[in-house]
Amino acid sequence: MTATPSLALRTKLSPTATALAAAAAVLWRPEGLRERYPRYLAAMYPLVRASVPLLERAAERCAERDDPASRRLAAYYRRHAGEERDHDTWLLEDLAAAGAGPSAVPHPVVVELAGAQYYRIEHEHPVALLGYIAVLEGNAPGPRLASRLAEVTGLPGSAFRTVREHAALDGGHLDDLYRVLDALAPPPDGQTAVSVSALHTANLLTRLFLSLAADPGGHP
């Protein structure tokens, strides 16, 4: 029996899970977390701010192709853009509650994360963005993380809205993505584009977490 595209993607991503989980564990260790958490928020802000523009550009590129699969994918990207809209505002509010603000210069790994997707949308195929989304939403905060962070850091509960909301939302978003991917049933080259994008994203996200965990300035 042939694996569905979503199962094939999950299988390819499975080896990355251990490294990502280990990086997250180091990021969220109690020692120094009070200072590290605002740096995490500041790094995530430009990444989340890029989400809606990426989705909208991918939808535009799909519309240019004007075939049934591309129209279906464009509709998904537009719908998901609506679901992600204003999440960057949550991060600004969290930063303010934590007594911090966004960084003047984005973390270089964040630039690479978002920038790679612009390249793939423009020069490969907009379907590749599905791999990026699958990794980010497949590694969303756990349901108890916000309360644990609040307890360890002593920061007010209002500093953890983004963590709390994404823990609740991203599982459903991931299920929706897998349904769309299976309905699209991309040809082999399309599935390769999705999986390569996903594997690259998983590697970069691991690097980002380790960088934020290791360096006081949060940069490599």
From TrEMBL:
Instruction: Write down the InterPro entries for this protein, in alphabetical order.
Output: Haem_Oase-like_multi-hlx
Q: Which SUPFAM superfamilies match?
A: Heme oxygenase-like
Pfam families attached here?
Haem_oxygenas_2
Gene3D superfamilies recorded: Heme oxygenase-like
Entry protein name: Iron-containing redox enzyme family protein
Q: Which organism is it from?
A: Streptomyces polychromogenes
